[in-house]
Design goal:
- This protein has 137 residues and is an alpha+beta fold.
- The protein has five helices and six strands.
- The strands form two sheets. The chain has a three-stranded antiparallel β-sheet with strand order 1-2-3.
- A hairpin with a 4-residue loop joins strand 1 and strand 2.
- The longest helix has 16 residues.
- The model has no long low-confidence stretch (mean pLDDT 82).
């Protein structure tokens, strides 16, 4: 598939718009706080806990300490983990793929302990719990 000159120009314009909002000039892992600290060209620093980022939560300190910044400054790469993070995504609170983020939200929602959920669980337990699955023949 060939890329036309016009498509290339549009892609460059989109990248420049993202860079205008800020790009990474430095990044490091803070072991004590278990977070990635990213310094932007604007003087802003963002700190992101590693447990929130897809592909980083189970990594060792040694693996996390080696961070490469893409030439555009819009990406961070961990070569030992083969993990990548999009800097504009971090600024927007996007810490992974859509599928991974949805899974994280579902996990958090499943852990919620609202009064209504507790009451429903107790009622279900008093009536014998979850019904057994039946095999349809």
């Amino acid at each position: 598939m060939a890329v036309t000159e016009r498509e290339f120009e549009r892609a460059e314009a989109r990248m420049q718009a993202h860079r205008d909002a800020g790009y990474a000039v430095a990044a490091r892992y803070e072991k004590r706080a278990a977070r990635i600290l990213v310094s932007l060209n604007t003087g802003v620093q963002i700190a992101v806990p590693v447990h929130l980022v897809e592909g980083l939560s189970d990594a060792t300190a040694e693996e996390l300490s080696e961070i490469e910044i893409s030439p555009s400054g819009l990406g961070l790469h961990w070569p030992k983990l083969d993990a990548d993070v999009y800097v504009p995504g971090l600024l927007q609170g996007v810490f992974g793929s859509k599928r991974w983020m949805a899974q994280q939200m579902g996990t958090l929602g499943g852990r919620s302990r609202s009064a209504a959920k507790v009451a429903a669980s107790r009622k279900n337990g008093r009536s014998g719990g979850r019904p057994r699955k039946t095999m349809n023949e």
